[in-house]
Amino acid sequence: MTDSRLAVIVLAAGAGTRMRSRTPKVLHPIAGVPMIGHVLQTARELGAAHVVAVLRHERDAVAAAVAEWAPEAVVADQDEMPGTGRAAEAGLAALPSDFDGDVVVVSGDVPLLDAGTLGELLTVHRATAAAATLLSAVVEDPTGYGRVVRDADGRLVRIVEQKDATDAERAVAEINSGTYVFAAAALREHLPRLAADNAQGERYLTDVVGLLAAAGSAIAAVPVAEPWRVEGVNDRVQLSRQAARLNALIVRRHQLNGVTIVDPATTWIDQNVAIGEDAVIWPNSRLAGATTVDRGASIGPDTTLVDCEVGEDAVVKRADATLALIGPRASVGPFAYLRPGTELGADGKIGTYVETKNAKIGVGSKVPHLSYVGDTTIGEHTNIGAGAITANYDDVAKHPTTIGSHVHSGSHTVFVAPVTVGDGAKTGAGAVVRKDVPPGALAMSIAPQRNIEGWVEKNRAGTDSARAAADAADRPAGTDD
Predict the structure, then answer these.
(1) What is the tens place of the pLDDT at every residue in 156-185?
(2) What is the pLDDT of residues 342-387, one digit of tens each?
(3) Which of 7, 86, 169, 362 could be 380's S-S partner, Cβ–Cβ 3.0 to 4.6 Å?
(4) Considering all CA atoms of the chain, what is the largest pairwise distance in Å, rounded to the nearest integer?
């Protein structure tokens, strides 16, 4: 349900220089979703009536991600004035002028902060009628974080940034997570009063807390139960750490839903992947994007599926597939490569060292070994012999191959597209099919075998092959010595 008295401002204007990347920091993915996408999804789960994303660095790229993951969100632009306080001011200005509810402020680089944690923070804020409530955390190493300073009675007095803290303040283990709830009226009153007289020369949002405390307003800090939920991502080390934490949560969720995951440590599953009961995921497998795996299917080991659909009781072993549809009870692999547009019907097979692309393979049909099938439609219960190739490209354009049902092709058949093979037809071993094959016909490429006697002794004189041939010629017929 939508909370008409709740707004969320997502701060995502920073450059993220420590990532050392051409990609904006908040667009780096975790579990298949950019970091800011996780934050926007959390805002949606919280039920906020208004969501504002404050942007600056690589503005257009980040705005496109915001539109994808939260179309209802409003984009606000931060100007040249640096600091979280200035960013919050831009976000507040984007809210309706008559909005007088609560404003949650979160960072776009804190992907594991969930709606449950924010909901608890909001509950405390409203129950105490506070002007501001911040989410804090008690950590073993607070280096780099702003410290929560309390008085002798435990009341929050102010937040001090690392570079502005005294030695005694740096020793404080309770840190500010950068997540807040403000009464909108209090935020409107105090944001314009922020100064930039600090080591960074920025307008800190944290100073609003100090101003509210000095004015006698009710403020509070609520320590989070799981400090890793509020850990921000500033470099690749932190990115991988948070990715591993989220993956562990995703794997556990699937396990509790009835999926066997043999080795959670080597199994990576994106957030939006769906897996049915009694499926088995073997080690060193990655399920990415919008992949769905139906009940009873077996995936892996050593398998990557990206945006694939796998049917009930199918087996996919040591394979790499993208945008492929694998039917019920079908078999794929080992060492198969399914490129986009592959559709394998129920009970079908794509076997060892087979590559497919834009190929529709019918019910019960098999491409078992060492073949390439591209831009091809294959009917039902057809068997493609080992080493077959659909030659779909003529250096200018791609062309289709159509192979009917109950067709059996011999080993090393080359189908030169465009070509059609009718139902029930067959091809001989090594056939090069350049013309359409009628139903029930046998297509063969016939060339008589010709043996040139003495060729090796004449053209490869002095080689081991020539000596072996000469020795064989000297032996009586039917003997080995």
Answers:
(1) 888 888 888 999 999 999 998 989 999 999
(2) 999 999 999 999 999 999 999 999 999 999 999 999 999 999 999 9
(3) 362
(4) 114
Residue 479 and residue 365 share a domain? no
Q: Which residues of 278-314 are buried (b: 16+ CB within 10 A; e: fewer)?
A: ebbbbebbbbbeebbbbebbbbbbbbbbbbbbbbbbb
**Looking at 50, 57, 190, 369, which residue is catalytic?**
369
Could you tell me if 127 and 273 lie in one domain? Answer: no
**Statement to judge: residues 226 and 240 lie in one domain:** no
Is 369 a residue of the active site? yes
Tally Cβ neighbours within 10 Å of residue 221: 24
Give the dihedral sign, CA 235/240/244/249: positive
**What pTM value is reported for the model?**
0.89
- Does residue 273 sit in the same domain as residue 199? no
Residue 314 has pLDDT above 70, yes or no: yes
Give me the number of domains the chain comprises: 3
- Tell me which of 230, 253, 286 is where a domain ends: 230
Residues 220 and 256 in one domain: no
How long is the chain? 481
Which residue in the block uniquely carries the two structure tokens 């997570």? 177
Residue 143: its pLDDT value, please?
86
pLDDT tens digit string along 235-273? 999 999 999 999 999 999 999 999 999 999 999 999 999
Q: Could you tell me the two tokens for 287?
A: 């399920």
Q: Are residues 78 and 36 in the same domain?
A: yes
Cα(277)–Cα(75) distance, integer angstroms: 41
